[in-house]
Amino acid sequence: MNLKELRNGEWVEYNNHPVEVIGIDEILKVATVYDHQNQKQLTLTANDLIADPQCHCDSYQYY
């Protein structure tokens, strides 16, 4: 995934479940996401993220 395609508040997939983009640092080329499932904030590269989250059995918690 390209970092320039990300927007704050967007849902993307990481580690087989949706996470919410809460910050983008174009200088360091990382995105900060909030993982509601694990209640953790993570800083990841765009390569770690999948653009369109797939439908998961627990996705009702995120949308």
> How far is the N terminus from the C terminus?
21 Å
Order of helices and strands: EEEE
Mean residue pLDDT: 84
Task: Tell me the total number of β-strands.
Answer: 4
Fraction of residues in H or I helices: under 10%
Shape: globular
Describe this structure in words.
This protein has about 60 residues and is mostly beta strands. The chain has a domain at about 5-45. Helix content is about 0%, strand content about 40%. It contains no helices and 4 strands. Strands 1-2-3-4 form a 4-stranded antiparallel beta sheet, with no helix packed on it. The model has no long low-confidence stretch (mean pLDDT about 85).
Short précis:
With 63 residues, the chain is mainly beta. Helix content is 0%, strand content 38%.
